[in-house]
Amino acid sequence: VLSGTLALWPGLLLVPAIVGLIYRKHFLARGFGRVAAILLVSATCVGLLAASFVEKRIELAIADVTASFSSDDYSGSFGRRLIIWRVGLELFEEAPILGQGPGNAKPLLEAGTAALGHELRYSHYHDVFLTYAVRDGILGVLVVLAMILVPLVLAARHARDEAGTYGLAFLAGT
Prior knowledge:
Elements (H helix, E strand, L loop, with lengths): L7 H15 L1 H6 L3 H38 L6 H18 L10 H11 L12 H30 L4 H11 L2
């Protein structure tokens, strides 16, 4: 699950693709084929230049996951996230309806990780929905989902006019 700036990386690829799909009629009607081809070639070049970096990051991630699951080595990034998620799920199970309350995430997380024998100091649970679930319970998660989905559904229903199309493209990027 992506959190923080990690969620930006797939977004850099997905948002332009989604906006392009939403505005495909406008692009095709106005002869943006050359611009699309240039963007595709540029994206391919950037992808080729970044391939070795991405490959190294994937190898590190695989090694980290393997160490966490096979030898109980939780010192890597993924291992620390496993501990944080475990503590978060336990805290959510303690107060599933209304959550632990605002302002309690950091001290509860520190106490929970210390109880497991790890000293981790984070202010959130490295998963946006788990963070809301711990803080606000299932009601908070439902409110956040509604804040995300309701505007998207309404914009998609009214995408037939120009303002609706613009709104859907804007929401796809946020």
